[in-house]
Amino acid sequence: MNEFKDNHPAAFQSAQEAIAWIVGRMEKLGIKPGLQRMQMLMEKLGHPERRLKFIHVAGTNGKGSTCAYLTSVLRACGYDVGTFTSPYLEKYTNRIQVNGEDIPDADLLRLVNDMKPVIDEIAETELGAPSMFEISTALAIMYFGKVAYPDYVVWETGLGGRLDSTNIVNPVVTVITNVGHDHMDILGDTIEKVAAEKAGIIKAGVPIITAAQPHEGWSVIEQTAKAKKATLYSLGDQFNYANVTSQLDLQTFDFTGPFRPIPGVPISLNGEHQLKNAAVAVMTLEVLRQYYACIVDDEDLYKGLKETRWPGRLEMISNEPRVLLDGAHNPEGAATLAAALQTVYSYRKLNLMMGMLSTKNHTGYLRHILPLVDTLIITEPDFHKKGDAEMLAELARELLHDMDRQVDIVVERDWKRALELLTSRTEQDDLAVVSGTLYLISDVRSWITYQTDSEKGW
Q1: Which parts of the sequence belong to the Mur ligase central domain (predicted)?
Q2: CB proximity list for 54: less than 8 A, separation 6 or greater
C-alpha cells in the first residue's frame, strides 16, 4: 500500500540497483552520527515511526541474540514482529524482516524510489547527504509503518545509541545488554563515555532493562534512568537467573523477577553468556506483559526461547571437519568465546582463523584467545576498514612471548585461502574456529553454506 503520489520518475529499475545506491554511500559518506537528518527525513515522510511499537536494543555484546530471543518469543505468542538488525550476515535485505522474512524486493524498490527525492532534497541543505545507515533505518521504518504494520518492532541500534539513527523512535521498552570496549574511536575512550552513549536511548518514562554490571558503567545508566524517570530493571537487582542444566545445544535456567518466578526456562544457544541474554529478553517480555498487556503464555515463552537460532554466534557450520563460527571481535566477545571453548566444546587441537577491522581493541581480544589455540591463522576481511594481518601477527607474537607460549602463526591475507588452510589442518578430533569481524563471518558462512560470496554492508 503506497501512500505517496508518484510525481517523480523512478530513480531505480530494480531492487539490486536501489541496494547498490544505498550501500555505495558507506564508502563515500561513512558513518555520520547525529539525528538532525533523520528528524528531517521522518518529517518529510510523514512520521511513519509514530505508528509503531519499538523495543529498542543497544549494548556492546549480546544485542543480536537478545533481539533474536525477543523476536522468536513474540512470534510464538502469535504477534507479527518486525526486526531491524545490523550488520547483516548474507544479504542486505536480511536487516529488515517481518516474521523472519526479508523485505520483498518489490517493496524495497518502491519505497527507495519514493524516498530518493526527499533524500536528494536533504542532501542540498546544510545538513548534508543522509548516510547509508540513515537511509537503511528510514527504509525499515517506511516498510514497517506504511506496508507491513507489525505488532512489535525489535529495533537494534547500529552504533552507540544517543546519536545513532535508530534513536529517532520513541520505544515502548528499552534494553541495554551491557557496556564494553567497542567503537571507542567513535563513542569515547572510557567505559563511562561509551555507557553515556548507550544510555542515550533511554527515554522519559520508558522502562529500561539492562545486564550491565558496575564495572561496565552501570552507574551512568542508573543516573540517566533516574533523570528520565524511567523504571530500571537491572540484572542482579530487580531480576536474576540461575543455571540449572548445561549441555551442548540445550541449557535451562530459573528466572526470578519482580512480577513472578519462571522455572526451567530452556534455550538451545550455547555458552554461559546466552543465559544472561535470554534472562534480559525474559525480563523485557515480563515488562511488556505488565505495562502493555502483551499476552505471553509460559508455553509460548518456552517454545520461543528454545527455538531461537542466531547464525554466526557459536554456530557449528560444518561437522567434517568441525568448523565453529563466532563473531567475537572485542575483548568481551573474546572472553565469552574463550569461556565457551573451555566449557562447551571438546577437541584435541584448536585451530583458529581470525580477521579484524582496523578500529578494534586487538590486544584485549588476543589475550583471551592465545592461551587456547594451537594454530592461529590471521587473515583480512574483504572490507575497506580491514585490519592489517601482518600487524596483527606481530602483536600476537609479542603477546605470546610475554606468555612464554609457542603457537603456530600463519598469515594469509586472502580469506578463502586462509579457510582452505584452516580446514586442511583440522583433523577429526580437532576444532576449527573462525572468529573476528562479522564481515569475515558473513563471507565464510556464505562460502561454506552456498559456495557464493555474501553481499556487504552495515
Answers
A1: 57-284
A2: 152, 153, 155, 169, 170, 171, 172
**Whole-number pLDDT of residue 457:** 46
User: 127: exposed, middle or buried (C-beta count within 10 Å: 0-12, 13-18, 19+)?
Assistant: middle
What DSSP designation does 183 have?
A: S
Global pTM exceeds 0.70: yes
Mean per-residue pLDDT of the chain: 91
Whose cell is 572472553? That residue is: 335
Q: d(Cα 321, Cα 303) in Å, to the nearest integer?
A: 31
Residues 6+ apart with CB under 8 A from 132: 22, 23, 24, 25, 26, 29, 457, 458
Q: Which among 333, 31, 366, 325 has a CA at the least distance from the CA of 182? A: 333
pLDDT at residue number 4:
47
**Spatial distance between the Cα atoms of 145 and 152, rounded to a whole number of angstroms:** 11
pLDDT at 187: 61
Region of 378 (left: φ > 0; alpha: ψ -120 to 50; beta: rest) is beta
Cell of 441: 563471518
In percent, the amount of the chain with pLDDT more than 70 equals 93
